[in-house]
Structures are given as C-alpha cells and as structure tokens.
Amino acid sequence: MGRYVFGIDVGGTTVKCGLFDVEGNVLDKWEIITRKEEGGKYILPDVAASVLAKMEDRSINKEDVEGIGVGVPGPVNEEGQVPVAVNIGWGFMDVVKELEGLTGLKVKAGNDANVAALGEMWRGAASGCKNVVLATLGTGVGGGIIIGGKVIAGAHGAGGEIGHIHVEDAEEDVCNCGNRGCLEQMASATGIVKLANRLLAESDEPSVLRAQEISAKSVFDAVKAGDSLAQKVAEKFGEYLGKAFAAIACVVDPEVFVIGGGVSKAGPVLLEYIRRYYEPFTFSACRKAEFVLARLGNDAGIYGAARMVLE
Amino acid sequence: MGRYVFGIDVGGTTVKCGLFDVEGNVLDKWEIITRKEEGGKYILPDVAASVLAKMEDRSINKEDVEGIGVGVPGPVNEEGQVPVAVNIGWGFMDVVKELEGLTGLKVKAGNDANVAALGEMWRGAASGCKNVVLATLGTGVGGGIIIGGKVIAGAHGAGGEIGHIHVEDAEEDVCNCGNRGCLEQMASATGIVKLANRLLAESDEPSVLRAQEISAKSVFDAVKAGDSLAQKVAEKFGEYLGKAFAAIACVVDPEVFVIGGGVSKAGPVLLEYIRRYYEPFTFSACRKAEFVLARLGNDAGIYGAARMVLE
C-alpha cells in the first residue's frame, strides 16, 4: 500500500484538494478554481495537473500514492461514472477512467454528500462508528448514509438523497427536483427563512426577527435569546427533521446522526429541537441513536474522498 | 464447502424447516411445533434434534453440511444473539452459541423479515438483484432491506423496521410498539379493515362491503368488482404505502420493492395503488424502481435462512 492518498472535492466554485497519509492525517490542503466552461471539460485535467504538480513539489513517486478519491456534486454509479452534474457543467463523465488516464493513479469517485459522510466517519464526529447518517443542512439538504462502513450509493445513484423525502403535503412551491413538499424545501437554510417569513406574516406577535434580515443564523440567535416566535419556527423546523430522521432510522437504524452544513452552526440547540420530534416518532430501539454536530466543516469532502480510496 | 444447508424459520406456532443444496434447490421441507412454554427453552433443542434426525435419515455427514441458518421473530444482533422475542417466549437467547453447541454445525441467525428478503433475492421475486426492499403486509407490516447483497441489520437490530415509520399524525390508536400513526397500523391486513370500517361509518355511500365481513381480501375483491367505496379504501391504503416507500427510496434507493404477506394475495391491483402514490413523492431517479409481488410465500423464511449461511 502507498503512503499517501489524495482527496479531491469538486464544488461549483472551487475544487478542494488534500494530501493525506493513510491514517487520515492531512499533510497539505489547497484549492483550485472550478472551470465550468465548455461542459466542465477542464475540471479533471486541472485536477490531474494539480495532483501531479504537488507530487513533483514534494518528490512523491507514483508507487507511494495509493490513489485519488474524488467527490462530485451529482449521482455517481459503482463504476465511478457520473450521468450528469449540472452544478459543474457536466453531462456524462467517466471520472475514474478519465482521471486514471490523466494521472496513471488509481481513482475512486463518489457523490459529494456520501463522501462527506465517510469523512466524518473517518476523522470527524462519527469517528469509530460504522453505521452513520449525515445530513447537511445548507442551501439544500444533502445526505450520506454509511452502513457497515460502506456508503449506500443506491441502485440509481440516489442513496442518501434524504433532502427529497416528502414531508409536507400542503407545500405549494416546487422543489428543484420537481416534486412538492420535500424536506429540502422546509428544513434547509432557505427553508427556515421561508418558515420564519410565513409565521411572521400569519401573526402580529412581536419578534426581534421583524427588525432584521431573516437567516438561519438570525432565527437561531433569536431562539437562544428567548424570542417566542423564533422558537415556534425552530419547533416546526425540528418537527420536519425529527420525523424524517425517525423514518430514516426505521429503515437503516444508524448508531449516529451527524448534522452538518451552515445551519449546524446554530449549535447544540438545533439538536434539541430535532430530538424532540425524533424520539416520539421512531421505533423504540432506534431511540438510542446519537445526534452530533459535524466536526470537519468544509473539509469533510476531502477527508472522505481520501478515505474512499482506502476501502 | 458442504453440499447441504439447513434453513429454519422459527414462528409463533410452528418452526418451518428446509434442507437445501447450495444452489438453493429445496430437497426436503417439514415443520415442527414451536414449544413456547418455559420461556421457549425447548425450541432450539427441538430444532437441533430435528436437523440431526434428518441427517441420520438421509445419511448426511456433518462434513457435508455447510451450516444451519435460523430466522427469528425478533431483533438479532451481528453475533446472532436475540435480546428478546416475545412471540416465542424468549428473553435473551444466544441462538448461534446454543445451536452450534447442540449440533456441532455452523449456525447463523437473523431477523425473520430480513431473512425472508434474502430468500426472495436468492430464489424468489428479486432473483438477480442486490438492492431489495421487502415489505410483508400481514397482521403487521414487516420489512427486510438488502443492500449490496447484504441484509441491513441495523445498529440496534432495527434495520428494516419499516412498519414503524410514522405516517399518520391524526391516528389515536396506539401501535404495538407504543407509538401512534405507524405504517403498520394503517397498511397491514388489520389496518385496511380499520380504514374500511372508518370510511363506511363516515358516509352512506352504498358498497358491497356493507353486506359482508370486512377483510383485506373482501376489500380488494370489491375493488376489482368496481365498488367505489372499496376503491377509496384502496386509495388511502396505497397512499400510506406509496409515500412510505417513496421515503425509503430516498434513503436506500433499491432496484426493487417486493410486496409479500397475506395482503399481497390481492395481486397486481395492489401494486397499481401503491405506485400511484410512490411515483409523485419519490426522487426522480428512484422512479425506475420496480414493484413486484413476492413469490416464495411462507417459504421465503427457510430459503433466506439457508442463504444466510452461504454469505
């Protein structure tokens, strides 16, 4: 086995890159621009050039490198092929074949949310666990599910797409996926803003939120300050997430739920609101599952991508 | 590898037993009584005696037997231990250790619903698939989930407990599990009778169901005969199941949903009502999942138990 492994996380703006040893210690970390033009055709060549340049810099031979792991914002099948990844301009892309051809190194590819879950399992909040559900609450709601130490990619690359669990029959807005009432519409950073605006419009109840820009942060700051209307928003938010996690637990029964993404910066209070609706709605044995905040932040992707190579 | 394998399915009334070759052909099939008295302490000795007698009858040596697989109606951990299985009188039972001690053969144990899913994957409706969700619609709603050819047992033995996904906020009756509004309360054989009785009480609409005993069978017979009220019951039933399966698909993204249990005798019409509510509520990529009726009936358990030994 080589002594080094590269972890690459391809995002819509930048490609995050990491050089790791096989124990998961990060030795170097850098970013390159994601060139989305012309169907994103420069992205993998740019990654290859950057990896090879790093090896040259550090006098690392190919034999010393176990491989390159790549996280992609889209579905990835078991062969490491991406049917489409709109955020980075890709139509079909055979990531493994392309990048192996460009570097001569072993390559593995996976969906970015799944890969982030692997990262949190390897060196983050779920360290030591083998059955993990990661929920990333950002602009959308992403998910990654690991069972027995392995990512559930799914038969159609949609394993862990928990943001599209249907949770609200009354929702009239259409989700990016085309459905209505998805978890992502109600319990993302944008979802919580929508919930707050709706509650503010429905009542005259005084709230500090009436005097400021509404964001996930301002809502949870108001919750902590005891604002009653903000607490009602948090209750609703917790109910959507708690019930969805309760359903997920009846399917895969994880040891731990890891909550990441921008919204998780609200801290432990977020977990309290989730647990309040998780516990009464899940199967008794699953009440033992833990809820923790993600630890690796934006680095979860590069850690997990590197870990993927070592599977 | 031995040429034979035993599959044992421990139920509340009888223990079903099967002798298989390693390709999954059943060579012999029989049943013994489940003696639940005294904490079910005779069950495993009875199984051992029955297996050893069968080997004697057929002049099968121990070296020719790959092992014994056992399905149990309760949670089973990775070591093959059962914390409790009320239906057969058991408190804690170390199935693997006990039965290996009694027979000198290798033993594996698993939850009966999970094991049935393995059976349908090996020689039944999901033959050739590796990612399978089995839902058993009987007195309750059981589930078994297979990903990458392996059962998801779960961190607390509750993997695949899909009957306890919360689906109805308005339900006031309490489920056997202690919660309210579980899928099992609404979409089992008993659930469909409850739905029918409620709809009959709520309206004066004429229906053939008013003149007969209500059962899952009579409801679906009336559906096929064009009875409008029965069709409304089937819609509600399909909605509960379709939405629950849609959520499950966003978690594990299976190739196929296999529907078994007594209710599945209604036939393909059942699948139509489920798909009607599955497709609009699941993630687009998961719409490709197939829905099929189980094929092995009450034998799924012995097939799957035998298959478990060969993993």
What does this structure look like?
The structure is a homodimer of 311-residue chains. Chain A is 37% helix and 21% strand. The first copy, chain A, contains 10 helices and 12 strands. Chain A has helices at residues 37-40, 43-57, 95-103, 112-123, 183-187, 189-202, 216-224, 228-252, 268-278, 300-309, and strands spanning 4-10, 14-21, 26-33, 65-72, 81-82, 93-94, 107-111, 132-137, 141-147, 150-151, 256-260, 290-293. Chain A has a 5-stranded mixed beta sheet with strand order 3-2-1-4-7. In chain A, strands 10-9-8-11-12 form a 5-stranded mixed beta sheet, with helices on both faces. Chain A has a two-stranded antiparallel ribbon with strand order 5-6. The model of chain A has no long low-confidence stretch (mean pLDDT 95). The interface between A and B is large, with 45 and 45 residues.
Write the layout of secondary structure elements.
Two copies of one chain form a homodimer.
Chain A lengths: L3 E7 L3 E8 L4 E8 L3 H4 L2 H15 L7 E8 L8 E2 L10 E2 H9 L3 E5 H12 L8 E6 L3 E7 L2 E2 L31 H5 L1 H14 L13 H9 L3 H25 L3 E5 L7 H11 L11 E4 L6 H10 L2
Parallel strand pairs in A: 1-4, 4-7, 8-11, 11-12
Antiparallel strand pairs in A: 1-2, 2-3, 5-6, 8-9, 9-10
Helix pairs in contact in A: 2-3, 4-10, 6-8, 7-8, 8-9
What's a quick, concise take on this entry?
The first copy, chain A, has 311 residues and is α/β, with parallel strands linked by helices.
Summary tags:
311 residues; homodimer; alpha/beta
